[in-house]
Amino acid sequence: MPDVAMKSTGQRVTDLESWAFRAGWDLAGIKETLDDLPATVREEVMAYASPMFEEVMNRMATKEDLSALAAEVSGLGTRIDTLDAKVDTLTDRMTSMEGRVDSMDGKLDLILAKLG
Known about the structure:
This protein has 116 residues and is an all-alpha fold. 84% of the residues lie in helices and 0% in strands. The longest helix is centred in the last third of the chain and has 53 residues, at 63-115.
């Protein structure tokens, strides 16, 4: 069964059936077919499964990939903590500025009242 991997599943099944039934009714042909069966089935399974396993292996993350990702996530955590501190500082400054504006607004009201 040459070049099993290049054929469609339907064609491979047809080829396998014709191979399995190639033996005539003589006992020697049946014995030869049965003796070849494990190797033929193994070849068919490998031809069918190999591309799937290869794809899984190509897409699978390595320990190094996971370590690099963990380092990036850790770095992001540090950056988020830094941003949180900066946001807290800005919030404190805004609160302080609001207090000053309210104070200036009150003083301006007093000045306008005296002038007016």
